[in-house]
UniProtKB/TrEMBL annotation:
Top-rank taxon: Bacteria
Domain GmrSD restriction endonucleases N-terminal: 11-265
GmrSD restriction endonucleases C-terminal domain sequence ranges: 508-633
Pfam family of the protein (one): GmrSD_C
Organism: Treponema rectale
InterPro entries: GmrSD_C, GmrSD_N
Protein name: Uncharacterized protein with ParB-like and HNH nuclease domain
Length: 645
């Protein structure tokens, strides 16, 4: 390994041809914040900002003395710096401060010469991006062309960006002139490579060309130890790049667990003597085809879900699930934050291409189940109560419960299409466990343990009722009494879920001859939660004057405040009606104001809403109404998810 402090002149005075960005590395992800920090530091420190390390690996080409060079770490920084170089070139090339030596620096820092014969020379990009960013990067950097006897770099984006910025400036000035609220016009969250160029082009427009030339000269300082803004580390075939990479405290955005796992898997194929081109072909047909096929596919796999206090991408949840399903997680105490470490430890034990390919095949197989077979919750798609899989998907998503994903994925893997009845039975068990936790308000700290143990029991064919395993826990919260007690104070989001499921269950219980038998409902369509006794009842004179009934030793006002959060005080109403009926007394809320607004009665279609009139007397909604309805709804929930123990 050779490590040396460098200015950017190492790109000009290079020993190699192209620098390859490995196909299994993540795409360019630096954004506005990263660009701003980099440029600010360079400008405020006369170009002497230290950027960390870049790790390059040289590999002998088979049967030759020539080498290929790949970038192991530093792709984000090197890409950004090369775009900055291009923007500086576009500003300085036609100025009086430019000379022929600068032409040579610009061309050689962005391109390498490939000589076909004594006459024909082709300039290719020095930084050779993978398919993920190759087209966008080449459009930003341009190409080398002859202009008479002089070589120049084309500027395919310069005029386009200049016109965009001029239009944005006009819109900005018009907004100020008209007294409108000024919004940030330029967005830098899409087409990151293009917008990196646009950002630098916009920022450098305000810099004096003399100062810009000074920055240029500083970045390309040729004297040793004068402006070492990077440490260039070069390793060879005999050195383990992953271990070196892991020990470097690199600047920029850390690799995600998914990036580290992907890199380790395909690097291990190379370590097992699979030729580079074969690894590349296998990568394209497996990982790329599954997770990076197009923008929609990449976006889906990187959509985040809540898991405990954290958000995790779909792909990270998948890899976590696979690790549990195949036993890479050795104990139930392993957590998702250890995911990359756990995979690396396991992969290091693989000594053959066959073993690694088997792991990849398993990941791809589970990915297909996760994305294409397991139901994906759509709040605008009707759900029927008998649709166990859709029903559970709704519960998991609304409650933001992802902990059981590994077990559910394992169930689909072994039972889907083979024993669908047993699959649904197991899913109903998971649903019952989750709903008892949600309704009772108990902590879900044991979910990781349950999930791990359930997978293990399925793997060894333990036919013992898994529900009994949960119900044998020392706290013994898993009871019907606990379930009903939990309805006294309900989170509004969960309250909507509980009422929605009760309504679906009622449809399923109807006589098959009735029109609404087994009817489906959309979770979101024209439905929102309404507190019948308003959360801010104290702001309405009518509610204040209505009698308040205490309960034992409690003060009447405190008891009313307590009753507001009861499930018995909640119902589902037409979306948008909430703001109309607001905090009004129940009679006005239900009937509406004569000559003004319609009330709930004009829009009621669900029995969960129609029934509330049966719990009051002369249109007076009281604490007794709430507690009686709470008890009745609790009985229905016990009918759906209750237990004898």
């Amino acid at each position: 390994m050779i490590a040396k402090g460098e200015s950017l002149y190492f790109l000009v005075d290079k020993e190699d041809d192209a620098i390859q960005v490995p196909y299994f590395q993540r795409p360019y992800i630096w954004n506005l914040e990263n660009w701003s920090d980099l440029l600010s530091d360079l400008l405020n420190n006369n170009g002497k900002h230290f950027l960390g390390s870049i790790i390059l690996k040289k590999t002998l080409k088979p049967g030759t003395n020539e080498t290929d060079t790949t970038i192991i770490d530093g792709q984000q920084r090197l890409t950004t710096l090369s775009i900055l170089i291009k923007v500086m070139y576009d500003y300085l090339k036609d100025s009086e401060y430019w000379d022929t030596s600068d032409d040579s620096i610009a061309i050689n820092s962005l391109f390498y010469k490939k000589i076909y014969n004594d006459i024909e020379i082709k300039y290719n990009l020095l930084l050779n991006h993978s398919h993920l960013d190759g087209e966008a990067y080449s459009k930003v950097i341009g190409s080398v062309e002859k202009n008479g006897k002089q070589l120049i770099i084309t500027a395919p984006l310069q005029n386009e960006i200049k016109q965009e910025l001029q239009k944005e400036k006009i819109l900005y000035e018009e907004a100020i002139a008209n007294g409108k609220k000024i919004k940030e016009i330029s967005k830098y969250d899409k087409e990151l490579i293009r917008n990196c160029y646009k950002f630098f082009y916009k920022q450098l427009a305000d810099i004096n060309l003399i100062d810009l030339k000074k920055l240029w000269l500083s970045l390309f300082e040729q004297k040793e130890n004068k402006n070492n803004i990077l440490v260039r580390i070069v390793i060879d075939d005999s050195e383990q790049e992953q271990e070196i990479f892991d020990t470097i405290n690199s600047a920029g955005i850390p690799l995600s667990p998914t990036d580290i796992i992907k890199n380790k898997i395909y690097q291990q194929l190379k370590e097992c003597d699979m030729p580079y081109d074969k690894v590349y072909e296998y990568y394209k047909s497996t990982w790329e085809e599954t997770f990076e096929k197009d923008e929609d596919t990449r976006k889906w796999w990187h959509t985040q879900k809540n898991i405990g206090r954290y958000k995790r991408d779909n792909i990270e949840l998948l890899l976590h699930s696979v690790a549990i399903c195949i036993g890479i997680f050795s104990t139930e105490d392993e957590v998702i934050t250890n995911l990359a470490k756990v995979y690396k430890t396991a992969i290091n034990k693989f000594t053959s291409v066959k073993e690694i390919k088997k792991l990849i095949d398993i990941i791809i197989s589970y990915a297909n189940i996760y994305k294409n077979i397991m139901p994906q919750f759509n709040p605008t798609e009707p759900i029927k109560f008998i649709e166990v899989r859709k029903r559970l998907s709704c519960i998991l998503n609304v409650s933001e419960t992802s902990t059981f994903t590994p077990y559910i994925l394992y169930l689909y893997n072994i039972y889907y299409g083979k024993n669908d009845d047993l699959l649904d039975k197991r899913l109903c068990m998971v649903e019952k466990i989750i709903m008892h936790y949600l309704i009772s308000g108990e902590s879900n700290k044991n979910f990781n343990k349950y999930c791990y143990q359930f997978v293990k029991k399925e793997q060894v064919g333990d036919e013992k009722n898994l529900l009994e395993y949960v119900m044998s826990e020392p706290d013994k919260f898993f009871t019907n009494i606990k379930l009903k007690e939990g309805l006294a104070e309900v989170n509004p989001k969960l309250g909507k879920l509980f009422l929605f499921m009760i309504q679906l269950h009622r449809y399923a219980k109807l006589d098959p001859k009735e029109d609404d038998y087994n009817k489906g409902l959309e979770f979101e369509k024209e439905r929102e939660l309404e507190h019948i006794l308003p959360q801010k009842w104290y702001k309405d004179e009518d509610w204040i004057n209505q009698r308040v009934i205490g309960n034992g030793d409690e003060k009447p006002e405190e008891y009313r405040k307590y009753c507001v959060s009861s499930l018995g005080n909640m119902t589902l109403i037409k979306k948008g009606l909430n703001s109309t009926i607001s905090n009004k007394i129940f009679e006005k809320k239900y009937k509406g104001d004569i000559g003004k607004n319609n009330g709930m009665s004009n829009y009621i279609s669900l029995s969960i809403s129609k029934e509330i009139i049966n719990y009051c007397h002369n249109f007076v909604w009281t604490e007794e109404s709430i507690k009686k309805r709470e008890n009745d709804l609790g009985n229905e929930l016990i009918e759906i998810w209750g237990c004898d123990k």
